[in-house]
Each structure stands twice: as structure tokens, then as C-alpha cells.
Design brief:
The complex is a heterodimer of chains A (136) and B (494). With 136 residues, chain A is α/β, with parallel strands linked by helices. Chain A is built from five helices and five strands, in the order E-H-E-H-E-H-E-H-E-H. The two termini of chain A are 14 Å apart. With 494 residues, chain B is an alpha/beta fold. Classes of the chains: A alpha/beta (136), B alpha/beta (494).
Chain lengths: 136, 494
């Protein structure tokens, strides 16, 4: 890859943001961060990331969904792949998966927290490659 | 018969009177006599008789005239005519005037007794018939009472009752059913169920219960959701009624409105979801830190790696606090708290708490100002709860403060109330966040609070403590200026 891919991390948990930032930077990604949905939407405009890693429950329980909905409704930004991370367990009745919920909430993939560093990296690589193929 | 039988003999001939008396008294009857109709009538009105013997031809008042009067006033009295003119005409005439039988003069004792016995038998049968009628009336009244009792019970039930026969026609219902199912039609027994009830879910359960081809149900219980006229959840219990040959006769359908229970249930499961989320978040962070540390995924900077462990320790610690707070809330909600209320001088608790928390304030160089009157008015509260209350408030005042900020604790008192103000010069609370600060798990999400750890339960616990100790809590705040919590408790002196 000629240019470093830029990843936007959106999560209200500072530990998750700092940690994933370190992991991604260690693997040669450029990282920008946001700690709420609204801050994330601002950062998309100013930073124009190649991929977004998004937390589901932030300042509100559905902040992640609201964020993704707005993003996918935007004609320019809807092409940016989104990886949704959620700590909401199935047992609580709020289970989300790409298979089950992708039809109404278009994000590109869901992963359940905690996500191991290699899993996160593999998923990000996969989504970026897909996006590249589509763009060619 | 052990009951005495009373007979009255009315005749102007003394011989007949005394003759009859002798014959009848020999048979153990009680006998009275009268010389004419007038005298006889007076006696009949003064005491009860079972039977009278009446001569037709008497001075003052004749037999026929007297009998007419007796018949209207004492229709049950058996009257037997004694007559010297024993012709068919006189007999018929006497019968018309209410006589039961007649006996021609002269008569032999046996003749008299036969006629009298027949008359008394008639009297006995009449009495028996009357008793049976009374009995029947009483039974009918009992049945009617029983019916009205069952009606009263069914009609005063809060649950809806519908009784439906096997042809799916309405048999019985109560007002709760009319209200719950919003039935506007006037109900009559025998109406088709589908003409009255427009709740497909309910009809379906009843159909299932009465379907002869279906499984042999004794009862079906299902929740049904109604959308009209308002959303409500009903628990429907449909019991199948069978006769002794286990032939289905119909169903009894009981509906209970469980909308409120469902609401409470939803709140509870929402709380559980939130707890699960709040527990997972720090655990995820801790696991991520450790995995990243062990795999070296974040590079090999020893400073950064050490820092990761330091921060996972911090998250583990906050997780412990969270579990503590959750246990506290659960104890308070189960109302099994053994609250030891006593008269307390809270100024002493304030001083101790500030002393304990001062080390936390040292890094940011936060100063304390305590203005508490001496002697301080006492309040009645649980000591442990008050310690926790002030710990939560003062540690918040430290955590959400700024470098070189201040925390002030000022007590004021009115005649009846102790007013405690705990103020900080910290980051403040926005107008948008202010209404939510006492909510479970609510945490202010701002750049300034990013590294502040907390459970989101502190103020929710504080509010419960204040309220269960009859106090009140108020908050004022200005963004980037600071926050003041005012807690008011009733003063209680010894």
C-alpha cells in the first residue's frame, strides 16, 4: 500500500480507544479518535477516514446506530466501511449481528467485545480490501 | 297426634250440644259450644279451631249467615252442617256457603265421628299442603339468594369473566369483561362470541380450547396483547368445563390485566441489560489490555506496556466498586436494609470523611472549606448510610473539580431543618445532563470526564439514602463554574 490507511475509532471508553489506537499504529495505520457519535461525525468531515471502528452504546444506548444511519444516508461518506463493536451480550436481549440486523442497519460488520488485537486487524484488513476492490 | 284438636259445636238445642261434647270428648277432642251463630262467631274470632259443627236453624244468627262470615275470615276452617231438614237442597245450599260436609239429625255417635274424622283428615291435608307450599317458597328464595350471591361475587371481580358454551355463545359475563374488552354492544346470553368480541387472539385461544379435534385441554393460559382501545397485556386463562362423561360443555375464560406487571418486568430487564453492559465494558477493556500485552500487539515500548497493566488494574478496581454499588442498590431495593436510625451529629461524620478523602485531593491541590456550627443540630438517620452519602458527595466534588479548585461544606439551619450545602468549583453539569444525574448508570460524557472512573450509581444511591431518611436533595450547577448539592434533613433533638 502506497499510503497509510486512516482509521477513525469512535468509542466513549477511553481505554478501548487508546488501546486500539496503539495496536493499529503499531501495525502501520494512521489513527484518529472520537469519543462520542457527534464528535465522530465531525471527524469524518475533517479527517475523511478510510474505515470507521464504531462502538454501539456510547453517550446514549443507540448512539452507534444513529451514527451509522446518518453516515449511510450520506451520498459521499456511505462508502466508508464501518466495523461495529458492541459489548451488548445476546443474553440481555439486545443481540446484534450482521446476519440478523444488517438488513435494517447497514454497517459492514459487527464484532462482539472484547475483540482481540489480531481479530480486529484481520477484520479491518478484510474490509479495506473489499472497499478497494469495489472502488477499482 | 300429640297436638290437641279443637272443635266448636254451635246449636241452639242444648241436647245436641251436650251430646256432641260427650261423644267428642270421649275421643280426646277439646270441645267448646255456642248457642247461636253470633256467639259462635265471637268464639271463632277469639281462639283457633280446627273444625266447627253448625246447626242451620238458630235464633239471633242462623248457620248460613254465620258460615258466610267464617268463610271469608277463616277460609281454612272445616265446617260441617248439622241439619234437621236433610234434603238435597239444604245440603247444596250449605256447601255453597262453604260447608265441607253435612250430617242429618238425628245421628248416631259413629255417624258423627265418621264425618268429623273425614273433616279433620281434610284439614290435616290442607295444612300439609300449605306447609309444603311454604317450604317450596322458602327453597325458591334460597335458590334466588344463592344466585344473587354468585352474581355479586362474579360481578365484583377485578378479573374479567366470560362463560361460553360449546357452540361459542356467551352464557355469562361480568362488568370487568365488558370494560377490559371494550364491549360496546348490549350483551345478551346466547349471543355469538364473534359478534361481540373483536380480539382475534382471544377468539383463537377459545377456539383452540373448544375444538373437539384438538388435544384434550383442561385449561390454556396465554398472554394476549390488545391494541385497541389502548395497548394492554392480558393473561387469559381458558378452562374447559366437562360433564361426568367428559363431554365438553363450554369454557370459562378469566382475563387479568397484567399491563402494569409487564411494565415493571420491562424496567427490571432493562436494568439487567444495563448492568450487563456496565460489567462487560470494564471486563472487555481489561481483557483487551492483557491480550494486547501478552501478544505484544501494541509494540514493544516498555513504558506503554507497563501503563496498559496499570490501567487494567484501575479498571478492575472500578469494577469492584461497581459490584459494591450494585449490591448496595439491591439491598436497598429489597427493603431488607437493617437501618439503625439514631440521633447523629453529622458534622463529625463530615470531618472524618474529608480527612479520609484528602489524599485523593492532594494531586490536584484541591482545598477544603468547612463551615459547620458548633454544636450542630442533630438529625435522625443511619450512621453507615450518612457516611456513604458524604463520601459520595465529597469524592464527586474532588473528582469533577479542577486543579487548585475548592470544595466547601456549609451547614445552615432553620427552626426545623438542617441544610447542608456541598459545593465545588469544578467542571459543572450542563443543562442537558442535569435532569439525568440521579439516573442509574448515568455518567457525564465529556472530554474532562474521560479519565475519571466511576460506576454511574453514586448519585442514584445517594438519592435513595436521602429519601429513605426523610430528607430532600437539590442540585444547582453552572457549566465550567461548579456544582452545589443541597441536602435538607429534618432536625431531631433529644
Amino acid at each position: 500500500m502506497s499510503k497509510k490507511a486512516k482509521i477513525l475509532l469512535v468509542d466513549n471508553d477511553v481505554d478501548i480507544v487508546d488501546l486500539n489506537k496503539a495496536v493499529l499504529e503499531n501495525n502501520d495505520y494512521e489513527v484518529v479518535t472520537a469519543f462520542s457519535g457527534s464528535e465522530g461525525l465531525e471527524k469524518i468531515k475533517t479527517e475523511q477516514p478510510d474505515l470507521i471502528v464504531l462502538d454501539l452504546m456510547m453517550e446514549k444506548h443507540d448512539s452507534g446506530f444513529t451514527f451509522a444511519k446518518k453516515l449511510k444516508a450520506d451520498p459521499v461518506f456511505k462508502k466508508i466501511p464501518v466495523l461495529m463493536l458492541t459489548s451488548v451480550a445476546d443474553v440481555t436481549g439486545f443481540g446484534f449481528s450482521q446476519q440478523k440486523d444488517g438488513y435494517w442497519m447497514k454497517t459492514d460488520n459487527y464484532l462482539k467485545k472484547p475483540v482481540a488485537p489480531d481479530q480486529l486487524l484481520a477484520e479491518i484488513n478484510k474490509l479495506l480490501e473489499q472497499a478497494n476492490e469495489e472502488n477499482e | 297426634m300429640n297436638e290437641q284438636t279443637y272443635i266448636l259445636v254451635i246449636d241452639d238445642e242444648r241436647g245436641i250440644r251436650e251430646g256432641c261434647r260427650r261423644i267428642l270428648e270421649a275421643e280426646n277432642y277439646s270441645v267448646e259450644t255456642a248457642e247461636n251463630g253470633k256467639q259462635g262467631l265471637d268464639l271463632i274470632q277469639s281462639k283457633p279451631f280446627d273444625l266447627i259443627l253448625v246447626d242451620l236453624m238458630m235464633p239471633v244468627m242462623g248457620g248460613l249467615e254465620m258460615m258466610e262470615k267464617v268463610m271469608t275470615d277463616f277460609p281454612e276452617l272445616i265446617m260441617i252442617v248439622i241439619t234437621g231438614y236433610a234434603t238435597i237442597e239444604t245440603a247444596v245450599d250449605a256447601m255453597k256457603h262453604g260447608a265441607y260436609d253435612y250430617i242429618p239429625k238425628p245421628f248416631a255417635p259413629d255417624q258423627l265421628l265418621t264425618v268429623i274424622n273425614r273433616g279433620l283428615e281434610k284439614h290435616r291435608l290442607q295444612q300439609q299442603a300449605k306447609q309444603l307450599m311454604e317450604e317450596r317458597d322458602r327453597r325458591l328464595l334460597e335458590v334466588a339468594n344463592e344466585k344473587s350471591r354468585i352474581h355479586t361475587i362474579v360481578n365484583s371481580m377485578g378479573d374479567a369473566v366470560l362463560v361460553i358454551n360449546r357452540d361459542q355463545q356467551l352464557v355469562l359475563w361480568n362488568p370487568a369483561a365488558v370494560k377490559m374488552l371494550n364491549i360496546t354492544k348490549k350483551l345478551k346470553p346466547g349471543q355469538d362470541l364473534t359478534q361481540i368480541i373483536f380480539q382475534p387472539d382471544l377468539i383463537q385461544i377459545i377456539n383452540k380450547a373448544v375444538d373437539p379435534k384438538a388435544a384434550h385441554y383442561t385449561s390454556i393460559s396465554e398472554e394476549i396483547e390488545l391494541s385497541k382501545p389502548e395497548a394492554q397485556t392480558l393473561m387469559a386463562n381458558v378452562s374447559v368445563v366437562r360433564d361426568e362423561n367428559s363431554e365438553m360443555l363450554g369454557v370459562v375464560c378469566i382475563l387479568r390485566n397484567i399491563t402494569q406487571l409487564k411494565k415493571i418486568d420491562r424496567v427490571k430487564s432493562q436494568f439487567v441489560s444495563m448492568v450487563a453492559h456496565e460489567l462487560r465494558a470494564p471486563l472487555s477493556a481489561i481483557e483487551n489490555y492483557i491480550t494486547t500485552y501478552l501478544t505484544g500487539a501494541a509494540g514493544d515500548d516498555p513504558e506503554f506496556n507497563r501503563n496498559m497493566l496499570e490501567r487494567s488494574r484501575k479498571r478492575a478496581h472500578s469494577l469492584l466498586n461497581l459490584v459494591e454499588d450494585l449490591l448496595q442498590i439491591s439491598r436497598m431495593e429489597s427493603q431488607h436494609v437493617s437501618r439503625k436510625k439514631q440521633l447523629l451529629d453529622v458534622s463529625e461524620i463530615i470531618n472524618n470523611t474529608v480527612e479520609l478523602l484528602k489524599t485523593q485531593a492532594k494531586d490536584e491541590n484541591i482545598g477544603f472549606k468547612i463551615d459547620v456550627p458548633k454544636p450542630c443540630p442533630t438529625i435522625e438517620a443511619d450512621r453507615g448510610e450518612m457516611e456513604q452519602l458524604f463520601t459520595n458527595f465529597i469524592s464527586n466534588a474532588i473528582k469533577y473539580n479542577v486543579k487548585n479548585g475548592n470544595v466547601s461544606i456549609i451547614f445552615e439551619s432553620t427552626e426545623n431543618f438542617l441544610i447542608m450545602k456541598i459545593s465545588d468549583t469544578g467542571i459543572g453539569i450542563s443543562e442537558e445532563d442535569l435532569p439525568h444525574i440521579f439516573d442509574d448508570f448515568f455518567r457525564i460524557s465529556r472530554e474532562e470526564t474521560r479519565y475519571v472512573t466511576g460506576t454511574g450509581l453514586g448519585l442514584s444511591i445517594v438519592k435513595k439514602i436521602v429519601e429513605s431518611n426523610l430528607g430532600r436533595i437539590n442540585v444547582e450547577s453552572e457549566l465550567n463554574k461548579g456544582t452545589t448539592f443541597t441536602i435538607t434533613f429534618p432536625i431531631k433533638m433529644n
